[in-house]
Each structure stands twice: as C-alpha cells, then as structure tokens.
Amino acid sequence: MNIMDFNVKKFAADAGTFLSRAVQFTEEKLGQAEKTELDAHLENLLSKAECTKLWTEKIMKQTEVLLQPNPNARIEEFVYEKLDRKAPSRMNNPELLGQYMIDAGNEFGPGTAYGNALIKCGETQKRIGTADRELIQTSAINFLTPLRNFIEGDYKTITKERKLLQNKRLDLDAAKTRLKKAKVAEAKAAIWAEEVTKSEQEVRITQSEFDRQAEITRLLLEGINSTHAHHLRCLTDFVDAQMTYYAQCYQYMLDLQKQLGSFPSTFRSNNNQSSSTPVPSVSAPSVLASASASLPSVSNSVVTSGFNELKASSGSRKARVLYDYDAANSSELSLLADEVIRVYSVPGMDSDWLMGERGNQKGKVPITYLELLN
To answer: Are 307 and 287 in contact (CB under 8 A)?
Structure first.
C-alpha cells in the first residue's frame, strides 16, 4: 500500500467517523436517539470549570481597566505584547500633571508663593505616578499573569479534553444505535449473527475509550480546586500591592499638606473650614496594620468637654501624646508618641491648638494629637 492509498483510506475513515457523529448529534437534538449522560460528579466539575473561566475573564478584564483606564493605551499594550515588543515608555497621568505643575511653578517663579506651591505639588504628583507604575507592574506579574495563564493554558487544555470526551460519547452512542439495529435485523433473520457480534465488540471498544477519556477529563477538572487556591494567593498579593500604593499616596499627600501648611494662612485655603487643624501623620505600615482603628475625634463629647474645661480655666493639665508630630515652624513643638507633656491654653489661640511644655521647651501643639490625663 502506497502513501496515497493510505491517505485516501484515512480520509475516508475520518469522514465516516465525522458523519456518524453528526448523525448521532442531530438525532439526539431531535429526540430520535438516546444519549449517554455523564455522571453527576463530572457534570458538577464541568459546571465549576465554566464558572471559574467566566468570572476569571471578567475579573481580569476589569482589573486591566482599573489599572489602565485609557482604552487606547490598553490596545497599544496588547499589540506590543502580541508582537513580543516592549511598549514605548510614556508619562502616566499623575506624572504628566506633576510635570505641568513643576514647569508652571518655574515659569511663575520658585520664589513666589504660588510658584513654590506648584513645584511642591508637582513633585508629589510625580511620586504618586511612580507609585502607580509600581502598582501596575506588581499587579500584572502577581495577579493578572496567573489569571491569564489559566484562561490561555489550563482552560484551553480542559476545553480540548472535553471536546474529545464529547466525540467519544458520540462514538459510543452511535455504536449502541448500530448494535440495537443489528439485533432488530437479526431477529428478523435479515443479517448473520456475526454482524451483531461485530457491533457488540464496537460498543465495548467505544465504551472503553469513553471511560478512559472521562477519567482524563475528570482529573483535569479536579485541578480547578488547586487553581482556586493559587488565585487566592494571587488575590492576596494584589490586595497587598493596592494597600502599599494607597498608603504611599496617603503619606505623600500628608507630607505635601504639611509643606503647604508652612505658607501664610492667606494662601492656604479658599473653603470655610479651618486649614489650621493638622491631620495626624501616619506611616504606611500603620495604615496597613490599623485599618479598623479610627482616629480620635475632637467631636467626641467627653474629649471636647475636657479640652473646653482646660481652655476655660487658667491652669494646666498633663496630656499623653498619641502620635508623632513634626513642628511646621519655630512656634510649634515637635511631639513623640506616648510621651507626657504639660498643656495649657493661651488667650487668643486657635481652638484646635494648645500651648505645650516639655522641660524648657515650649510651643503650640495640636489637640488632635493629645489625650488629657486625670
């Protein structure tokens, strides 16, 4: 037998198999043929795999939108990724805003209040832009890539084996149909017993192939639990990256607010709220570790009452410092957390401040950083 004859016979066999499957599938849809049902456990595994694939795709796509809101930039990154080329480096939005602010500040004059403030804001925006890049890079490596690997790797393998299982199932049911027809014909003496035996052997072979493929598919599908565990670890990494990013941004803005607070009050705020009330400076680790803890508020009736009584009297009280505080100018007193100082009120002082004493050192201190002691 030459190669051409072999190829012709193989093509004919493949065509016959395809036709047999197509006929079986059509008759099942029309309710004219019986269908071998998968066991309940395998059906549940298939359903779980489909659900995992669906939601993994949605989470992955929406995370990409979150990290890069610009659709044109996402398309460009996708094209470069498919071409296996590195996308050109461009400024992100915070970096671009920061650069504009710095350029404007230099144009207006670094020695002017507005120009100086613009430069300080621009530098902070650029630091936020750098943190944003780090968030995108970390999230892409630790979160998006594993999710994409599942969609483009593991689930594609599952889909391939599931399709093979479907074909084996169609072959099995087609063989069962032929056996049933052979037995009916044998009863009518239309064919020899050898035809029935041949059909029975075909059913045994297709049944064996179906069972083997079902086991392969089942083993692959049971790996979905491991996939969920892996994706959980990736999700934790993503949350950690976000927490680091937001904590960095928070600290950057606190530092910027403190720098802007050194300007005369005329330039600080246009709203009706007092800009002299300081915000406690909290480091990134403390933000991550104490997300459930709330900062003390001077609106609390007990605390307010204590400070009001102190301000109404001419005496002094001891107070414990709650947070570190760096003095913005020479009129203020720097504080260290947990130290005890003596505080008292001075006529005409802002309601959010007291005068503090530590040995021979004196200066204004913010009441939001203090806890009065009995």
So the answer is: no
DSSP letter at 97 equals: H
How far, in Å, CA of 91 to CA of 98, rounded?
A: 10
Query: 209 with 192: CB under 8 angstroms?
Result: no
Q: What is the pLDDT of residues 100-122, one digit of tens each?
A: 999 999 999 988 889 999 999 99
Strands of 353-358's sheet in order across:
361-366, 353-358, 340-344, 316-321, 370-372
Backbone dihedral angles phi then psi of residue 337, each to the nearest 5 degrees? -55, 140
What is the C-alpha to C-alpha distance for residues 121 and 126, in angstroms, rounded to an integer?
A: 9
Please choose, from the candidates 81, 37, 82, 66, the residue with its C-alpha nearest in 3D space to the C-alpha of residue 214: 37
Backbone torsions φ then ψ of 362, nearest 5 degrees: -135, 155
Q: Which three-class secondary structure state does DSSP give residue 217?
A: helix
- Cα–Cα dist 123/311, whole Å: 40
What b/e string do you get for 122-160 counting C-beta neighbours within 10 Å, with b at 16 or more?
A: bbbbbbbbbbbeebbebbbebbbebbeebeeebbeebee
**Residue 314: pLDDT over 80:** no
User: Residue 68, class by beta-carbon neighbours within 10 Å (0-12 exposed, 13-18 middle, 19+ buried)?
Assistant: middle
Question: In 3D, which of 158, 122, 349, 373 has the Cα closest to residue 365?
Answer: 349
59 CB neighbour count, 10 Å cutoff: 16
- pTM over 0.70? The answer is no
| Ramachandran area for residue 358 (φ above 0: left; ψ -120 to 50: alpha; else beta) | beta
Q: How far is CA 324 from CA 299, 304, 320, in A?
A: 21, 21, 11
